[in-house]
Write a structure and sequence with these properties.
- This protein has helices at 9-26, 41-52, and strands spanning 31-35, 62-66.
- The protein is of the alpha+beta class.
- A two-stranded parallel ribbon has the order 1-2.
- Helix 1 (9-26) crosses helix 2.
- The chain is globular and about 40 Å long.
Amino acid sequence: MSVEVFRTRAALAGSAAAALAEVLRRRRRPVLLLPAGRTAVPVYRELVRLHRTGRAPMAHAITFNLDELRVPPEDPRSF
């Protein structure tokens, strides 16, 4: 396993979105488990940008949102 260090959040978001886009292009029916919450928003924004330019095809993707908080569904912190 390797660790990458990024100078900015934007650089991290770009790299993460590029990796997801690569999976979306290479797999016939990609399945993505995506974290919910605010932390991943910059990655999702970049992924949307890549999708709009045709570099992150979502037509056959299946996504699941992961809420890492262990709270009941009726809790306002639940997504």
